[in-house]
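Example 3.2
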Amino acid sequence: MVRLCSRLKIHYAWVILTGCFLLSCSGTTILVNSVGIFIKPVSTAMGFSRASFALFYTFSTLVATVMAPTTGLLLKRFGTKPMVMICTVGAAVTMFSYSFCQKLYQFYICGCIAGLFTGALMTMGISGLIYRWFAKKKALAIGIAFSGSGFGTMLLNPVLSRTIETAGWQTAFRLLGVLLLVCNLLGVLIFVIDRPEQIGLLPYGAEAGIEKDSGAAERSICQKEALKMAPFWTLCAASAMAGFIGTGIQQHIQAYFTDIGYTADYSAYVFSGVMLILVAGKLILGGFIDKLGIRTGTTIICLLLSFSAFVLLAGRLPWMPWAFIPLFGGGYAILSILPTNLTRTLLGAADYSANYGVVTLFLNAGMASGSPFSAFVFDSAGSYKPAWIIGVDYLRSSFPDHASNIPLGHKKIPPVRLKTHI
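Structure, written as tokens:
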């Protein structure tokens, strides 16, 4: 592959980007985006409440949260390629094991084991590769890489829905385990090289005399110093709430649509439509961030996500699904595009994996609590609407305050008071 790129005069960074797209297409699709489709059928078939079953994903995410700083350090020490290979095998075996679970505690145990492996397979491992290989167009590259999750979910979700209906949820879990193993291993073995120096290259954009990032040298901050900065904890708080709201909606979209009278197939196609828009949204927002700045991108994403939650309150009106698809498809980029770019812009590239490991801890904590919170609201109130109202209120009133208190693009970062509106 390296020789082919040399002959075609294509920088190998674009091959790395292809590999990252494939890793996102399989990893994030299977480990995060496909979870919601199982909530209603498994809960109904096994006699679980939705809140109690959704906790299996919470336990998985909590373990990933605790492991995030360690995963970041391991990625820095051993490299992305060996870590992804090891974690792919572990996660695939665990995904297959879900199909044999009959009791809630068995789902919980499998969830905890899965959490040990998920960190390196999603944003942490992928974004580290992108920032090592791209000196310019980093936000666009991040957008392209993470759009793989939307593309994969768009294709896989109708297949999973049909598989659950015809062959059962156990077969669907086994299918996911096999797909994760095959797609991830092929992607990492064929495309991934950890660093450009390993094949005698500079990052894309650096060969033209462009430094890795304008002012990046002044803003490269190690983890020890980052932990002393108030803006860093503001970033962590904002990431936690982004994960809470985004996952709280995403994991329950299909259950909500079937609850208000749509068929399972129609709900699956709505979710696939969301993922199609997510693909385009990440590409467009990545380009916006490169050209207009991270603040503009943050504002756009918050508005889209806020309006999408508001639209859900309309219930079964004819226009509701068609309005929800583009709004949530664009807004759901809040989980991947913003935390990675904010971390890189605020702290630089020198200790990115370790710093983003801490940010991921908070992001995962929010993701772990968002889905069971929405399920708890449904079990208590018989409707998801109170959960949507809470999401709209936070995004309208408090998230902009959090985001605006993250100083970006400055050599000297002043102390900032951490706001905690919820």
